[in-house]
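Example 3.2
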Amino acid sequence: MDIAAVTENGLTENGFVMNGFVMNGLTENGLVLNGFVMNGFVMNGLTENGLILNGLAPGGVNADLLDDPLSRQFLQYVVSCALDDQQTLSFTAGGTAYTFPGELGLAPQWGASHGSCDGSCQRWVSACVLARIDAAGIHREISVRGPAPALLPTLGEISHYTQREATYFGNLFVQGQPRFLCLAPGQKEDQRVCGDSLADCPMTVVGSCALDCVLKAGVFGDALCSDAGRSGTGQSYFESITVFLPK
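Structure, written as tokens:
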């Protein structure tokens, strides 16, 4: 398998990006296409340390891992979350050429020459990937928001995506792959991500964000959310992403 360097243009052969349209949905600031299936990145796809955190350029990705289509799916969402819409990642696996486009730009430095991804970068990308899990594998548009410039919503987005769902945080790139969500105040379920039962959720449900997160920014999302269910206890994640659904 050969991996080409990240390119600095928005038009690619296999991962078509043009005029803001990516994959099958419009992306604008925090608005992204959802549809990442759970068994595509943890249970069957991503193995721990499958991505080497010394860059998304040549030599930065485990070559054998990318022969697996589920691992390529995981990488596609990592690239979409980390790189911006002027960056792409191109590689060849199993004799097939692939190009994955960036979208949100939460960690564009990772795609630069000799780029790396530190702890904060890992947590931002992880929160973004976790927010895009769909229990049924259904593609639908969601609005992802949080305390990062790339996640600042537009006024139109705020007015059309008003149903607050949950806040997601964790780190998929460390041992144990900790992953968490807290529910929006008043919510008792998260059907999009967990399905019919919170007991079967692919991440730990720590309770209500009203008790769990220190920074509560309303329509802009929460931050500093704890893995212990109550703010000020356990480990807190500033790099948290809140999902809003269409009304």
